[in-house]
């Protein structure tokens, strides 16, 4: 049976999106789970105390989740969680516990480490995943644990680490909203250059800098404004959040999803033992992030698998200048080989975007001036022991269709958003996002109001 709200809105198949804004909470926490006595905390005692306290946060990202991983998950009920990459010596210590589903999980090891602080003994790095916070609200999440220590070798390794993450996100998160949080081991006073490879390289904002420091970064070279290792009971939040932790939260909006935050909280008081002592040697840092969908560009859920290179046509459709598709060309045989759209802007300029290879046979549908693609059916199947896209059929508001490939038993149909969108404009397909190589491996519609 369909959810009542969808029936009322006349939407009998997956569609976007009666709800166009909301918020989610994040928690960044280095849980000090190195095996005792290497850990600077007491994880065998503390991890079972941490576990049940993670529940209030929508997306928790932990670092140093090494040898007490089972205890960390034991009293937690987040429905979507990463599997451990192993104990110290084998794993990165990075895990994510989420209320929302994710795709595209990748664990990436740092290219550089410095031997001080035992950084090179275990494969530290970062994780990337794409989380569906709500219909249309796909957000790229990064968790990281950069090289520790204050020697020159450490500072240089951190520079390399954060530059490596920035370079990765410049490829994988093109035109996507981003949330990065974790243990950067960096301070503005000491690691300004490293932090700026994220800030400038990805155009992200540090929530602490924006919310607590009114946009003003601590001066490079000035004394560290570090937090004490513990706060006396009763210390006000304003004091706990005024000092700089190496744990940081960064956000970036995209054309399709605006992210904002006006809160960042040191969750110290929620993670104390019965004697008032902290459960880790890092503070837990949280933020509530507000999301808002664009009324001009909207991403539908993608179908398919995680092979080959990422692509997105979001750049075709900047808000305020969303073009109209004038024709669409598909190539297919046994599977879907390529998708190609030709678009025209209101000023007459045209552009095309093509993804996939030259296999299969092409077919083209030319659209009339008042014609929009309002529905797409995408089917996936198993190919060479992974999932790829086998079939696409698009349908216009005038009932014309174009298809390519072979249908399977695993199909999803998506339709244009059901909210009004930009005043005086109509929703229609403007392009696609997903992954492709010599064929189309993952495919999602991008709707635009033009
Ligand atoms: C037409 O509009 C598009 C989208 O805003 C822009 O990229 C392009 O430069 C414009 N072309 C001209 C000739 O103004």
UniProtKB/TrEMBL annotation:
One example of a Gene Ontology biological process annotation: phosphatidylinositol dephosphorylation
PROSITE patterns: JACALIN_LECTIN
Jacalin-type lectin domain segment(s): 297-449
Keyword terms: Signal
Xref: SUPFAM superfamilies: DNase I-like (SSF56219), Mannose-binding lectins (SSF51101)
InterPro entries: Endo/exonu/phosph_ase_sf, IPPc, Jacalin-like_lectin_dom, Jacalin-like_lectin_dom_sf, Sph/SMPD2-like
Superkingdom per UniProt: Eukaryota
GO cellular component, one term: cytoplasm
Molecular function (Gene Ontology), one example: sphingomyelin phosphodiesterase activity
Name of the protein in its database record: Jacalin-type lectin domain-containing protein
One Pfam family in the UniProt entry: Exo_endo_phos2
Signal sequence extent: 1-17
Keyword Protein biosynthesis set for record: no
The keyword Cell cycle is assigned to this record: no
SMART domains, per the entry: Jacalin
């Amino acid at each position: 049976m369909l959810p009542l709200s969808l029936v009322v809105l006349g939407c009998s198949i997956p569609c976007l999106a009666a709800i166009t804004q909301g918020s989610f909470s994040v928690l960044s926490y280095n849980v000090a789970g190195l095996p005792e006595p290497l850990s600077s905390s007491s994880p065998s005692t503390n991890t079972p105390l941490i576990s049940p306290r993670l529940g209030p946060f929508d997306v928790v990202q932990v670092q140093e989740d090494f040898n007490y991983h089972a205890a960390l998950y034991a009293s937690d009920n987040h429905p979507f969680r990463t599997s451990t990459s192993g104990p110290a010596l084998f794993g990165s210590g990075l895990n994510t516990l989420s209320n929302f589903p994710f795709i595209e999980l990748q664990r990436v090891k740092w290219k550089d480490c410095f031997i001080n602080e035992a950084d090179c003994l275990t494969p530290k790095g970062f994780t990337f995943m794409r989380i569906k916070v709500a219909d249309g609200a796909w957000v790229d999440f990064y968790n990281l644990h950069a090289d520790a220590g204050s020697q020159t070798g450490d500072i240089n390794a951190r520079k390399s680490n954060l530059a490596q993450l920035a370079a990765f996100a410049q490829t994988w998160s093109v035109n996507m909203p981003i949330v990065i949080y974790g243990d950067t081991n960096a301070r503005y006073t000491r690691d300004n250059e490293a932090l700026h490879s994220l800030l400038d390289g990805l155009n992200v904002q540090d929530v602490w800098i924006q919310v607590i420091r009114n946009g003003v970064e601590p001066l490079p070279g000035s004394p560290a404004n570090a937090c004490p290792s513990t706060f006396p009971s009763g210390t006000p939040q304003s004091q706990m959040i005024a000092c700089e932790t190496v744990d940081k939260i960064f956000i970036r909006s995209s054309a399709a999803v605006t992210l904002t935050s006006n809160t960042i909280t040191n969750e110290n008081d929620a993670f104390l033992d019965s004697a008032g002592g902290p459960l880790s040697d890092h503070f837990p840092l949280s933020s509530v992030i507000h999301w808002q969908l664009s009324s001009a560009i909207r991403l539908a859920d993608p179908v398919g698998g995680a092979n080959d290179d990422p692509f997105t046509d979001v750049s075709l459709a900047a808000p305020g200048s969303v073009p109209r598709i004038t024709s669409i060309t598909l190539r297919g045989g046994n599977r879907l080989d390529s998708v190609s759209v030709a678009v025209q802007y209101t000023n007459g300029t045209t552009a095309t975007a093509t993804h996939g290879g030259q296999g299969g046979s092409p077919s083209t549908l030319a659209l009339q001036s008042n014609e929009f693609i309002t529905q797409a059916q995408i089917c996936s199947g198993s190919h060479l022991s992974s999932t790829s896209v086998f079939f696409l059929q698009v349908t216009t508001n005038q009932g014309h269709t174009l298809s390519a490939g072979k249908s399977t038993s695993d199909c999803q149909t998506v339709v244009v958003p059901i909210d009004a969108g930009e005043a005086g404009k109509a929703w229609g397909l403007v392009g696609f996002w997903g992954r492709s190589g010599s064929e189309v491996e993952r495919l999602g519609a991008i709707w635009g109001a033009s």
